[in-house]
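Why Phosphotransferase? Reviewers of the renewal asked for a concrete example.
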Amino acid sequence: MTGVDEVEVVVAHDERATLRVGDVFLKIDSDQARIDVEVEAMGLAPIPTPRVLWRKPPVLALAAVPGTALGRLGEPSPASPAAWAAAGAAVRRLHDAPLPPWPGRSLDELASRLDGECGWLVTNGVLGKDVVTRNREVAEAALRPWQPVFVHGDLQITHVFVDDDVVTGVIDWSEAARGDALFDLAVLTLGHEEHLDDVLAGYGTDADRDVIRGWWSWRSLVAARWLIEHGFDPSQPGCEFDVLKSRM
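Here is what the prediction returned.
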């Protein structure tokens, strides 16, 4: 990494930070178990992932993946329908892979987290009670038994890179586990509902859209406090609060 002109702070908060130094990403994480999951998941996933260069706790060094992200939440995606379909096909390969050896969150855990975050949003006046109540009702559709698959667990569009309508890499695997396939599809299309048909075309099968809408609401409700407490703004146009208000 000699001759690098600058260090770019990609993201930084009190749990972890990611720096870019040339073509190398340095992930500094206070939770080594989270890094353990990330490294093992990337080794198991049957789709392109970043190459691990070295690891010296608390730092993990990863090679940059080629291409550009599908887009950003709150902004129109520059990617073509074919690129979104390619993302759907990559997700299907992941979901068809053998399960990782560690479990995911249980249905009871997910329901309990929803209860707690909805209570916090109302008690602190962050969102109107009517918006929270309505989205909690929508989220209930997602909280049902499912057949577990290998999920990425945090499949935001900023984590999927494409080049010439081909997926070149999927990053940030610290939430990978056994889980609901429709959760991954929902997180991928959160705030970009117009691309759900493209993703499902690549995924190769239709899906219960009420469940996907449920996960859109669940994700937006439970993420709000974390985002606010870590310096992010879910009230920006096109982001989590707009997703919740669109269900009204």
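The longest strand covers residues 7-12. This is the kind of structural detail the renewal will allow us to pursue systematically.
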